[in-house]
Amino acid sequence: MTLLGISSRNNTFHRTQSEITFIKAEGCLEEALIQLSRDNDYTGDVYTVDELSCNVIVNGSGNERTVELAGVDGDYVHNFTVQIQVLPSFAILDFSY
User: Fold this and answer.
1) 76-85 β-sheet, strand order
2) What is the DSSP string of 7-53?
3) How far apart (Å, rounded) are the C-alpha atoms in residues 6 and 52?
4) 7 falls in which pLDDT band (50, 70, 90)?
5) ∠ at Cα 23 (18, 26), nearest 5°?
6) What is the pTM of this model?
7) Beta-ladder partners of 94
8) Which of its termini does the chain have fewer beta carbons within 10 Å around, N or C?
9) What is the set of domains in the chain, with CATH numbers?
10) Rounded Cα–Cα distance for residues 85 and 23 (Å)
11) 32, 58 contact by CB (below 8 A)
12) At a CB cut-off of 8 Å and minimum separation 6, what does 31 contact?
């Protein structure tokens, strides 16, 4: 019974840490989208939020871009890919994580 309780507590801890990493990575993605909306020539950057490191790469040309983000915090990693239309108006076309 004790081992079951410890295992359950560990699972809850890991799930919580993963969710925290996801939320921080979303913040990096929002910053990248803001930068791209301000500058169509934005190609990406590296952002740090607490212990999370986000690597953002923007590919594409013309009216569409692909934003790829990897957010890493220790053993926790979250990846996002977003298809963006930059012209005639800024819009998210597709989003996956």
Assistant:
1) 44-49, 52-59, 64-73, 76-85, 91-96
2) HHHHHHHHHHHHHHHHHHHHHHHHHHHHHHHH-TT--EEEEEETTEE
3) 27
4) low
5) 125
6) 0.85
7) 83
8) N
9) 2-96 (3.30.1300.30)
10) 24
11) yes
12) 47
CB atoms closer than 10 angstroms to residue 74: 9
Q: Give Cα 54 distance to the centre of its chain.
A: 7
Closest Cα partner for 46 from 36, 27, 32, 61? 32
CA nearest neighbour of 65 among 34, 49, 42: 42
pLDDT 10s digits, 60-84:
999 999 999 999 999 999 999 999 9
Tokens matching residue 70: 């990897």
